[in-house]
Amino acid sequence: MAVRRVVPNIQSEAAQESREFYGLLGFEEVMNHGWIMTLASPSSPAAQISVMADDKTAPVAPDMSVEVDDVDAAYAVMRATGAEIVHPLQDEEWGVRRFFVRDPSGRVVNVLGHR
User: Fold this and answer.
1) Looking at residue 79, what DSSP letter applies?
2) pLDDT per position as a tens digit, 10-55
3) Alpha-carbon gap, residue 47 to 101, rounded angstroms
4) pLDDT value at position 2?
5) What is the DSSP letter of 70?
């Protein structure tokens, strides 16, 4: 299993203000679903930040997202080790397959793969 990218998720109701603030650092909006917006660096597209009010289909907003090349394998590994699954593996309408797991420090990690 390989990691493709890691994105910090900022929970905030100030999406417009965040877009403007991070724009000062060179980030541009690359995705906006209304409840989550992702900003990326044009010169290094994998450098990203997401801002979300709440997660649309999960009980909590994740602290970070980790995109992997095989989300099913990642899910199997986490379950086998007894990690706390916060949100079950499922396909989302916006084209990702994902689950949430709690890390040892209590952070919620959104582990995903694009379909």
Assistant:
1) H
2) 999 999 999 999 999 999 999 999 999 999 999 999 999 999 998 8
3) 22
4) 94
5) -
Q: Helix and strand tally (H, E) in the chain?
A: 2, 8
Domain boundaries, the chain: 3-114
Structure tokens at 3: 């990691």
**CATH number belonging to domain 3-114:** 3.10.180.10
Q: Hey, what are 55's tokens?
A: 């997660």
Name the helix (H) or strand (E) containing 99: strand 96-102
Structure tokens at 73: 């394998």
DSSP 1-28: --EEEEEEEEE-S-HHHHHHHHHTTT-E
93/10 Cα distance (integer angstroms):
22
List, for residues 72-104, the tens digit of each pLDDT value: 999 999 999 999 999 999 999 989 999 999 999
CA distance linking residue 14 with residue 16, whole number of Å: 6
Residue entry with tokens 């909590």: 60
